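Chapter summary example.
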Amino acid sequence: MRSLLERVESLAPANDPLLIRGEPGAGKEVIARTVHANGNRRDRPFVVLNCAASEAARLHSELFGAPMQRGLFEVAGGGTLFLDEIADIPLDVQARLLRAVEDHEVKPLGGEVVHVDLRVIGSSARDLETAVREGRFREDLFYRLNVFTLTVPPLRERGDDVLELAEMFLAQLGHQGGLTPTALLALRAYGWPGNVRELHSAVRHAAAISRGAPVEPKHLPEAVTHIAQKRETRLLTLEEAERKHIIAVLEACGGEQVEAARVLGIGRTTLWRKLRHYGLISK
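The structure predicted for these 283 residues follows.
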């Protein structure tokens, strides 16, 4: 997460458009909010529009305005407009969006041209290059939004990001108890198929159940602790570990003891004695 945060911090002061890419739930909005909070527009509005959830017929008025209705470009004036899942914007609206981004002007339905000053951040879980080739996304708009790009890896590939994000979410909820070491292990062991969105939900669940006390595994959702318990392994004695390793090497060598001894770095006689000791051959 450090390298990702360093990239976020380096891009935050810019006013050019930013494109954030990543799987659904990977935390693209969290990154967008972090960019806004670290930029020179932090004291101005941060406005979000989920393009996938907006009806095509209403999208134009939502963005640019209509009689008796301010568009989000105006609402976000001086701040940041975050367009989530921009690949779902219809082509006719894309043309107007391009003009708004390039010329900093919008024309509400039935109104006059309005100058706007804001930063546009877009996000997409889809392959926009493919959408451009297939004619579903305007090439000129793609390059205009793609001035800066951040790719957010899925949570399962981000190591200790899980722990940092969990602690951040707890702090945002006003939870002072923190996470116990065993809860941290459980969070780290889980694969998070729902990415940051699932982690946020799990932390909210734990905060509510723990009632301010330190979060333990019993406070986490069952799906998280169930996987963690399955991944737990009992520590082996030295003899158990050696026996298990010898079996694995023998299997890999097709049962050939001479080859297995060579791989293990011991003599053939020594291997034979160990096989007898561990009951792997008859005495």
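To summarize the output: The domain at 157-231 is CATH 1.10.8.60 (Helicase, Ruva Protein; domain 3).
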